[in-house]
Design brief:
Blueprint: E1 12-16, E2 20-24, E3 32-35, E4 43-51, E5 54-61, E6 68-71, E7 81-83, E8 91-97, E9 102-107, E10 115-119, E11 125-129, E12 143-146, E13 152-156, E14 159-163, E15 171-175, E16 181-190, E17 193-200, E18 207-214, E19 225-226, E20 236-239, E21 242-247, E22 250-257, E23 260-263, E24 276-281, E25 287-291, E26 296-299, E27 307-310, E28 324-329
Antiparallel strand pairs: 1-2, 1-28, 2-3, 4-5, 5-6, 6-7, 8-9, 9-10, 10-11, 12-13, 13-14, 14-15, 16-17, 17-18, 18-19, 20-21, 21-22, 22-23, 24-25, 25-26, 26-27
């Protein structure tokens, strides 16, 4: 099977532990890598967007001196600029809206840091205090997404919060009020549909579950469905009305439209390598999975077939089992 996308993204970028960064063009078997953090911090997420007419990449993670890096050219290892927004803060996720020209980042909510972080260029960031909105507590927020216009949503514990003014103000849009939800781990948007994944610690079904809502009513969510891929699954990606959830060497495809979420027939061990941690798409049938052993796995047919494009990237030196945490395409989400 081919590992070269026929359309869509022209560049893919991955990040991982110890400041690991890698980029590839349309040949997903060939990656250029480097470590861009002298303190060997562990990157959490990378997001593609723009600043004016220029492309911009933003990395978020936890560091006492800086929590964000941005670059307009990932091929330049020295081209990243550090941003320090708050001491002792861990950021987990970031989303960009091209319609609003706004970036939003979320993460730690403890130690008085009940805030989200907002930027209009990916370089200068301001805190938005959300401590007064309903239900907010000290639990970390692990996911944020936008509809590409003025609406953003982030998740915390068993709740979903919404902004309709490009992240300037926020309100609780839905509380599942379910103590069995260990925490909503991610949120994405595609095909006028919001999609969440969470772990249920009890009940039926249990494990990693998916629910969806139409953007016309984010108070009304579908019933939970078991993804079959294990309770430890953390992340997923969506594009062109499809979502793929990946963990270890398993994946699950879902087709979504409002409250309708249709799971494909599940077959175990479809990925050629174990350790899958995160996934990205360009919305053109092309998907890239990265994992804990430095492996890069790809599909060019919406997950019907997978190949091991790279077996164990060694980015930071002496470790062929590089822990890769996130990957993104140079396509502005959502698609």
């Amino acid at each position: 099977a081919s590992t070269t996308p026929s359309s869509g993204a022209t560049q893919w970028v991955l990040v991982g532990d110890d400041g690991a960064v890698g980029y590839a063009g349309t040949d997903l078997t060939s990656w250029t890598t480097y470590a861009n953090d002298p303190e060997n911090e562990n990157f959490k997420a990378i997001t593609y967007g723009s600043s004016g007419s220029a492309p911009r990449w933003v990395i978020v993670w936890e560091d006492d001196d800086r929590e964000i890096q941005y670059s307009d050219d990932v091929t330049d290892a020295a081209g990243w600029t550090d941003v320090n927004i708050d001491p002792d803060l861990a950021l987990w996720d970031c989303s960009y809206s091209s319609g609003a020209g706004v970036w939003v980042a979320v993460g730690t909510m403890a130690n008085g840091a009940q805030k989200i972080y907002r930027s209009t260029d990916g370089a200068s960031w301001a805190a938005v205090d959300i401590s007064g909105i309903s239900g907010i507590d000290t639990t970390v927020s692990k996911g944020v997404a936008s509809d590409g216009q003025n609406t953003f949503m982030f998740v915390q514990k068993d709740r979903v919060y919404k902004s309709t003014d490009a992240g300037a103000s926020w309100a609780l849009t839905h509380d599942f009020n379910d103590s069995a939800i260990a925490g909503i781990r991610n949120i994405e948007y595609t095909n006028s549909t919001w999609v969440i994944m969470y772990q249920a610690t009890s009940g039926d079904p249990s494990g990693a579950l998916v629910r969806t809502a139409a953007d016309s009513d984010t108070t009304d969510w579908s019933d939970p469905q078991d993804l079959n891929i294990g309770a430890s699954s953390q992340r997923f990606a969506c594009g062109d009305g499809k979502c793929i959830f990946a963990y270890s060497n398993d994946h699950q495809l879902a087709t979504v439209s409002g409250k309708t979420c249709t799971l494909a027939t599940y077959t175990a061990n479809q990925l050629p390598a174990s350790g899958a941690q995160n996934i990205a798409t360009d919305g053109n049938g092309n998907w890239v999975v990265v994992g804990t052993s430095g492996d890069v796995q790809t599909s060019v047919d919406d997950g019907a077939n997978w190949v091991l494009s790279v077996d164990g990237l060694d980015i930071t030196g002496g470790d062929s089992n590089e822990k890769l945490k996130d990957v993104a395409a140079n396509v502005v989400m959502p698609v």
